Every structure is written in C-alpha cells, then in structure tokens.
Amino acid sequence: MPITPLMPVYPRCGVRPVRGQGVYLYGEDGAQYLDFASGIAVNALGHAHPALTKAIADQAATLMHVSNLYGSPQGEHLAQRLVDATFADTVFFTNSGAEAVECAIKTARRYHFANGHPERNTLITFDTAFHGRTLGAISATNQAKMRDGFEPLLPGFKYATFNDLDGALAMIDDSVAGFLVEPIQGEGGIRVATPEFLAGLRKACDEHGLLLVLDEVQCGYGRTGKFFAHELYGITPDIMSVAKGIGGGFPLGACLATEEAAKGMVFGTHGSTYGGNPLAMAAAGAVLDVVLADGFLANVEAMGARLRASLEQMIPNHDHLFDSVRGHGLMLGLKLKSDSRRFVEHCRDNYGLLLVSAGENVVRILPPLVVDETHIAECVEKLSDAARVYVPVSDD
Fold first, then answer.
1. pLDDT-derived band of residue 393, with 50, 70 and 90 as boundaries?
2. Distances 362 to 41, 66, 127 between C-alpha atoms, Å
3. 3-state class of 91 per DSSP?
4. Taking the model in full, what pTM does it have?
5. Half-sphere exposure of residue 96, counting CA atoms within 13 Å on the CB side?
6. What would the pLDDT profile of 184-196 be if each residue is shown by its tens digit?
7. Average pLDDT of 53-60?
8. Where are the alpha helices (DSSP H) in the chain?
9. Distance (Å, rounded) from C-alpha 1 to C-alpha 81?
10. Which of 278, 292, 363, 381 has most Cβ atoms within 10 angstroms of its Cβ?
11. 209 conformational bin, left if phi > 0, alpha if psi -120 to 50, beta if neither
C-alpha cells in the first residue's frame, strides 16, 4: 500500500466530524456525538461558540498576521490581561503546547546562564509525563513509546518518580536548573500531584535557587475549576507553559514567567514567526472574556463535582469494569480494570460518546467547560449503557 497523503502517524478512527455545535460533533454521515473529549481539552467553550467565532471572523477581516518585528497592540493587551490574572510578569506567545514547553525549558536554562551558572542546565522531570512531541519535549520524558527511533535525544534531563518528593530532592546537584512537572498528568492517566509533593518542590526551589516550571497545557485554563491547577495547591511557579484551552480551538500556546525567571530572555534569544499574531490574540481574548467572567469558574467546579458524584454513583453498578474516579473539576479520569482504549472505542462506536484513553487504563473525561447538567446526565447514561453490555478482554 502506498503511503497516505496525510502522514500515517495517527490511528484515525471512523468518526469524521464536519460540524460542531455546543457539546456535540456531527460526522459527514450526519451521526451525532456527545463530545466529552473536547479535542483533548482544547475546545473549552465547546463548538461554534458565538463570541469566539465572531472574534475570529471580525479579526480575520481586519488583520490576520504581521511580523513580530513590529509592535503588537493585540499581543500587548492579551499579555497584560494574563499578567493581571496570574503570578506572571511577562508572556511569550507560541502556536502550541510543545512550543510553550520549549520556551519554558529555554527560559529556565537561560536564567542560570544569565546568573553566571551555565552548568545549571538540567531539569528534573517525572515518569509518565507528557510534554509534547518536539525533540526537546520528548527528551523531557522517559517514555520509550515517544523516544524510540529519535535518538540522540537532548541532554539536560533527569527522571524522577511522580509524587515521590524524597526521590526528586535526592537528584538535586550543581547541574540542576529546576523541576518540570504537570500538576495533573493528563496523558499519564489523570495522575494528581499531592499537595505535599508540589509544596515540597516549591520549597526546594526556594532553598536551592532553582526554578519551578509547571506544564499546565492540559490542566490549566479553567479545566480544574481554577484558572490554573496550581491554585488548588496554594503555590505559584516561576515559569509555566499553557496551551489547549487558551485559544478555544485556535492554535495557540504561551509561556508565562516572573520577571526574575525571565531575566535571561533578552533581544534575540527566542522568537516565533506566527506566535502572538492578531488572529490568535483575538481568539484568546474571546476565550478569556468567557473564562474570567463572574461565576464561570465556579460553575466549572460545580459541574465537575456533579460529574464526579454521578460517576462514583455509577461505579458500583458496574464494579466488574470500573474501579475509581480521579482528577479535579472537568479533568476527570475513570479508572478501569481492563483496557481503557478498547472501552473508549466501544463507547464511541456504539453509543456516540467521545472520550480519550490515557495511561494506567484510565478513560479521560474532558467535556467543554460550558457543559451543563443535562449533558452530564447524558454522558453517564451512555457510559452505564455501554458498560452494561461490554465484555472486557482478559489480560491472560
């Protein structure tokens, strides 16, 4: 068979969406799907949100792109809004989460270089982490499925066990620049950092002059019911990468940093042709208007609690299949006792319910942040119906 026009790196399924509305997707054959995957936590406002589509259309008719050699009124405005709403003093806009992670890595290394310690260039990262698909991002994980065949990878990373504070602290030496960690690992299986773990990393950074770099590409931007997940822990990072929900579906990411952490990022140290272009800024501004509106995040938290309670109530009815629920807000994981990927396919193909599999046989449940109680009830009903007839495959 000849290679396909689209490089065959995705195991694409039979769902072929051509339209979306709210929390639903519609295939080219007219089939309707309840979208509790949200483009893997991207479609924060669901599909065809009127404020987002209008902002994009109006900006596209005005000015889509100019070089970053010129001033950026749109980028300056959005950056100021993010600075006002977060720990950060400065923002660099990218086109994706992986690029935001790359910028975060560079910022951390450059900080120590600017301080006269270029030898402090190693970041301690954690098992089952996912930071993207660029060479730098896959070098920051120890997962063979992402690394095999792409060697030599970049030096400058050590790998610790997630939620093992003592093990991470034991890796600190004169080469270490800081820690790179997801407060909640998405791809890894909705693994939630313990308060003691994140607080301990923050304390160690303060004591040793290191930088705490958070990857909130998936768990940020309202997904947990807080604007950013680290707010659940009462700590702040020095540098943070964000993306996914920031553009509501428009390709966009950002690297946020304190003034101190970004001291090395001066003229010529970093750049992006498309990053922060007016069209992306318009999309992000529309998303921010909604997410930071009074009551929005509180409603995400409430809907997350309702979804979690409904899932926990369902589990005993299908305890041959389901084990437990994990996560925060509308970033929840349903732990299975068998292959989660196969069950996700079952729900999709037979019940029109879109979910996402993850590590540790977890089903990720990531609805749009505009979901309501009727959608939650529909999701849980479909899950229960799917579980009732599902026959798990033994690992034997």
1. confident
2. 15, 43, 16
3. strand
4. 0.96
5. 9
6. 999 999 999 999 9
7. 98
8. 38-41, 50-60, 73-85, 97-114, 135-139, 144-147, 165-169, 195-208, 278-291, 296-314, 340-351, 373-389
9. 51
10. 363
11. left
